[in-house]
């Protein structure tokens, strides 16, 4: 009798797990279908309003002058033996000084850190990377090439190539996600972790499933699972959706901070209009659901989390919840009136808060090998 009950209990547990997994993927694909219908309606409406320009867009042939501004640093390249990928980065500051490594988000590239490259090069060797699939770095074709483990390994390889065994790691948006994961898996390589407008990955997954309002704000995660169609929607009307992300009243830069100049915007259009660029950037999203939940969660480095109060994509309640996973000093600063694009929107405030955090326990440096 005991054996029968044991087998029955085991069967019920397995059944419950299967139902939970089925519900999880049903939610994802169901919401993906809804987002597709909405996108199709937007496309159809755009065709009605602008029948001659909807399917017109231009690949930018030449970079704007701001991308060659020597005050930002030197353009460098490295080919990693293990992955075979070539990475582009911009570096400034003296070699041998502590390393501060910057990881950008979507749909950005190294240029999003221009204000920080100028600010911190006096005391650090500052390096802003084009992550795989972005900018002048290589674009692997396979979606599997953008799994979390590959993205984290890229950062380890780059730090070691630069001649360091640890760094002060700074990440925004998707770069923040990779920064969290790197600090989790390689705590000995992160002296301090600075994250801008990106919750701990476990906080995000738990919170989004419990709060429909965040699920709605994260609808792009589901839409981006589709092949090719998201790339089309970003491209139509000469990248209108991309321009809107950075400039619209609801999501853009400069509502209470610095405005994105026409040349700055052209830099993003130059980077994202290149063949394969949109697919590389979107492939980050196409692996996210199979990579969660995390098997490891705890961060053992000191953490500074900066959060724009008016982030259009992420709810502020997630910021404080990150404290649950940090086993060291945690500082959270909410910046009033700031958007999702925090380091570009409010660079002076961001830089001041980073300096304050870095000076706490100045004895801990980012040493070379």
Automatic annotation (TrEMBL):
Superkingdom of origin: Eukaryota
InterPro entries: AB_hydrolase_1, AB_hydrolase_fold, Epox_hydrolase-like
Pfam families recorded: Abhydrolase_1
AB hydrolase-1 domain span: 98-344
Signal peptide annotation: none
Record-level Gene Ontology MF annotations: epoxide hydrolase activity
Keywords, comma-separated and alphabetical: Hydrolase, Membrane, Transmembrane, Transmembrane helix
Chain segments annotated as transmembrane: 21-45
Family membership: Belongs to the AB hydrolase superfamily. Epoxide hydrolase family.
Name used for this protein in its record: Epoxide hydrolase 4
Annotated gene: ephx4
